[in-house]
């Protein structure tokens, strides 16, 4: 692979990972508060349809993306109302919503199929774009790609270095203790569900067909990243890399069916999740104690979900 192809590869990885980063970080915020939103895939599709339709009708990309984000926030709000205030099964509500919103997206968006809509133009950053290799990889994208990169650091800082981030983690781990210290767990979960849904709504990028499946990948990556924004983002970029490199492999190995490379990232992610599950088993940890390099790998994959994740709050 020559230098030009290597640059194109990493430019494609950064651009391709952006929607997954937005959705996965949005879900990380929600789940860190103890609430599961399984409606991601349908939410992304409906948000993408809304974003495209509004942008097409108003000829305003800003209104389009804000509309998509608002749709994502509203759907997350429905999950929060049923899961937090009505104490219904968050898994069941989210699963029903993802099916309903997916079908609704295709039904309402049918009249907009095969229509050329407004395009998001790249916005190279002056001076920074001229940095060899890094400039082209990181500073020649659209505003939403830049936002996804910035969001990684913002989420990490918010969760671990702000009072609201401390409340968020406290509610996700032990809502009763948070309540005893004056925090209302319901308000915290509802607020962060809306914030997470807003980010999920941006992940469709106005491309309903191209967005299908992104929500399920984002949900898996949240687990892969151990509910840590930096690791979650790393998982998103890894998945994007596997998708992009598969395109290159199709050219290098033309005798292999293209479908093999298209589906390869998915079993690799499942294998990684399996490793993470094994890394938490006491028998495996005991076996690895006298094997330093295996122990180090297991620590990298080890993660623990927020203690209150998916559990209904006790009535007050």
Structural Rg:
20 Å
Order of helices and strands: HHHHHHHHHHHHHHHH
Number of strands: 0
Mass-distribution shape: globular
Content of β-strand: under 5%
Query: Structural class, please?
Result: mainly alpha
Mean pLDDT, as a whole number? Answer: 86
Number of domains: 1
**Largest sheet, described in full?**
none
DSSP summary: helix tally: 16
Low-confidence stretches: none
Through-space gap between termini:
62 Å
The helical percent reads over 70%
Give an overview in words.
It is a single chain. The chain is mainly alpha-helical and 316 residues long. It has one domain (3-229). 72% of the residues lie in helices and 0% in strands. The protein has 16 helices and no strands. It has helices spanning 3-32, 40-58, 61-85, 90-108, 134-138, 143-161, 163-173, 175-180, 185-202, 208-211, 214-224, 229-252, 258-263, 265-279, 282-288, 292-301. The chain is globular, with a radius of gyration of 20 Å. The mean pLDDT is 86.
Summary keywords:
316 residues, mainly alpha, 0% strand, globular
How do the strands and helices of this protein lay out in sequence?
Elements: H1 3-32, H2 40-58, H3 61-85, H4 90-108, H5 134-138, H6 143-161, H7 163-173, H8 175-180, H9 185-202, H10 208-211, H11 214-224, H12 229-252, H13 258-263, H14 265-279, H15 282-288, H16 292-301
What's the quick description here?
With 316 residues, this protein is mainly alpha-helical. It is built from 16 helices and no strands. It has one domain.
């Amino acid at each position: 692979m020559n230098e030009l192809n290597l640059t194109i590869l990493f430019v494609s990885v950064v651009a391709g990972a952006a929607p997954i980063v937005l959705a996965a970080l949005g879900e990380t915020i929600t789940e860190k508060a103890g609430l599961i939103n399984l409606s991601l895939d349908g939410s992304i599709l409906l948000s993408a349809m809304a974003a495209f339709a509004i942008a097409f009708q108003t000829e305003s990309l800003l209104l389009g993306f804000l509309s998509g984000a608002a749709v994502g926030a509203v759907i997350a709000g429905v999950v929060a109302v049923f899961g937090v205030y009505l104490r219904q099964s968050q898994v069941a509500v989210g699963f029903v919503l993802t099916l309903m919103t997916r079908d609704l997206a295709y039904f309402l968006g049918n009249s907009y199929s095969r229509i050329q809509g407004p395009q998001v133009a790249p916005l190279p950053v002056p001076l920074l774009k001229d940095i060899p290799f890094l400039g082209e990889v990181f500073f020649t994208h659209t505003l939403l790609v830049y936002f996804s990169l910035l969001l990684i650091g913002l989420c990490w800082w918010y969760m671990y270095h702000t009072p609201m981030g401390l409340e968020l983690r406290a509610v996700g781990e032990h809502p009763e203790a948070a309540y005893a210290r004056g925090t209302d767990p319901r308000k915290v979960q509802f607020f962060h569900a809306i914030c997470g849904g807003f980010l999920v709504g941006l992940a469709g990028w106005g491309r309903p067909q191209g967005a299908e499946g992104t929500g399920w990948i984002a949900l898996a990556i949240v687990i892969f990243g151990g509910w840590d924004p930096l690791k979650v983002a790393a998982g998103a970029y890894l998945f994007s890399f596997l998708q992009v490199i598969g395109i290159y492999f199709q050219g290098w190995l033309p005798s292999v069916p293209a479908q093999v490379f298209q589906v390869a990232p998915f079993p690799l992610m499942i294998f990684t999740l399996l490793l993470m599950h094994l890394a938490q088993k006491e028998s495996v940890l005991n076996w690895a104690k006298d094997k330093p390099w295996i122990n180090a790998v297991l620590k990298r994959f080890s993660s623990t979900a927020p203690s209150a994740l998916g559990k209904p709050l006790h009535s007050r």
